[in-house]
UniProtKB/TrEMBL annotation:
First-tier enzyme category under EC: lyase
Keyword terms: Amino-acid biosynthesis, Aromatic amino acid biosynthesis, Lyase
Known function: Catalyzes a trans-dehydration via an enolate intermediate.
Gene3D superfamilies hit by this protein: Dehydroquinase, class II (3.40.50.9100)
Sites marked Transition state stabilizer: R17
Pfam families: DHquinase_II
Keyword Amino-acid biosynthesis tagged: yes
Protein's organism: Chlorobaculum parvum (strain DSM 263 / NCIMB 8327)
Lineage: Bacteria, Pseudomonadati, Chlorobiota, Chlorobiia, Chlorobiales
Similarity annotation: Belongs to the type-II 3-dehydroquinase family.
The name this protein goes by in its record: 3-dehydroquinate dehydratase
Gene name per UniProt: aroQ
Length: 145
């Protein structure tokens, strides 16, 4: 089982960035936590501040034969990137949308996600556990295949 954990803009700043909202773990801590919790999974971890780099990553992976699925925290791109939405619908791999914070408890603009419709599900508000729940869902999907 191979899973891509992909993070968009500003998630490289975790640990320093608004810890009262996003917690004190760094992105490396979160990624290490996933690798420790799911030793049977081959993870690929990718983060970029750039929209296009996220699209390229999805396409590059798809062209290599794909993976079991993608856990994606698209950051603010969630709320407006039609390009990211189209890329998710262009690939066969299932994509789980995750958020550290509960986006429904915050500013109104965060309540809109343009990617949810093309993702298999949405998990938010559980901090690093949101990623773990995303991986669990993808593992269940692989079992059912
Ligand atoms: C986020 C929520 C987004 O609204 C925000 O722009 C982020 C992080 C989260 O993980 O809670 O960058 O995706």
């Amino acid at each position: 089982v191979s899973i891509l954990v992909m993070n968009g803009p500003n998630l490289s700043r975790l640990g320093k960035r608004e810890p009262e909202i996003y917690g004190s773990l760094t992105l490396d801590d979160i990624n290490r936590g996933l690798a420790d919790a799911f030793p049977e999974v081959t993870f690929e971890f990718f983060q970029s501040e750039y929209e296009g780099a996220l699209l390229e990553k999805l396409f590059e992976l798809e062209d290599r034969g794909g993976c079991s699925g993608v856990v994606l925290n698209a950051g603010a791109l969630t709320h407006y990137s039609i390009a990211l939405r189209d890329a998710i619908s262009a690939v066969i791999m299932p994509v789980v949308e995750v958020h550290l914070s509960n986006v429904h408890k915050r500013e109104g603009f965060r309540r809109t996600s343009v990617i949810s419709e093309v993702c298999v599900g949405v998990i938010g508000g559980f901090g690093a556990d949101s990623y773990h729940l995303g991986v669990q869902d993808l593992l269940k999907r692989v079992e059912k295949e």
